[in-house]
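Pasting two entries for a bug report.
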Amino acid sequence: MNQTQWKTRRTRKALGETVEASPEYVEAGYAFALAQAVYDRRTALGLSQADTAKRADMAQSQISAIEGGGSVPTLRLLNRLAKALESHLVIDLDEENPAFDFRPFGALAVQRAGVEQLVEEAAQVVEVQWADGEPVAATLTAHDQDARRAN
């Protein structure tokens, strides 16, 4: 096959062809979705990369790598990052449309057994949604106990 016969993934999908995403392609999608979410939340708070890094006990270069899509942090680091960005982090691991959403601190409604519960005093809440034996969404919340008491 030569270059003139290549079709982009988007073109193949538009033509109705089955398109399988490689694990690397999916991983890159996650990294870029996280990158955009970190950038959006950081700039909404008016923080520089250096300010964010200091709040999260990280190096500025780590924030830069995350925002550049070149790094997918661990859950522990995501927890620190969410706290530094004064938010809950909601993660949707849909291969076609991954989403990372930093939601400002406040009460978190958690769906459990079909009943919404208000979680106010939890230091950390992790809610994972499963479909076909695979995790498809997770909610990670980091609260600063002293900050909540002051409000």
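Entry 2 (this is the one that rendered wrong in the viewer):
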Amino acid sequence: MTKNATAAAVPRNNTPIKDETRLSWEKLACGRVGIDSRYVRMPATTTTAELIDSIGSLSEDPDVHGILLQHPVGEHIDERAAFEAIAPGKDVDGVTMHSFAAMSFGLPGFVSCTPGGIMRLLDDYDVDVAGKHPVVVGRSAILGRPAGMLLLGRELMVTKPRRPRRGPSGTSGGRRPASCREW
């Protein structure tokens, strides 16, 4: 039985070739495992409201079984609002607050993809994490925070270093925080 995996893509202005290449690879990968894929391309001028309406339509479509919002979206889009428009049962990327809460409490639901993949690699390679003290650098809603919660779920003491102070240009000068350089 073929199911539709749907990805809503909102290209940034001057969408980089690498994004188009990734979308092509995803479509090919879906086809190889018998999953139909449908990409909803929207202009770079799409507003948050228009994107939310499009995602809402996909969420209500019974032929759509999963939704992936390609990100980062344009700077003019409220990405969190767009993520929250995805129906929890179709949030296959684990990006909604509902999915984060379910993952945090060990309840059924979708796990954030990259952190979930990291945990699977640890399991598949029989990495014994008992007694370890992992450090998660980064606090993004799609990687750092979910990774920390999954590690906490293994009853580990997780450290999330504070952000380095920014220089006058708003950057850290390309340097990693001292806590990372020490290792």
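Dev reply: Rendering is fixed now. As a check, the viewer should reflect this: The two ends are 49 Å apart (CA to CA).
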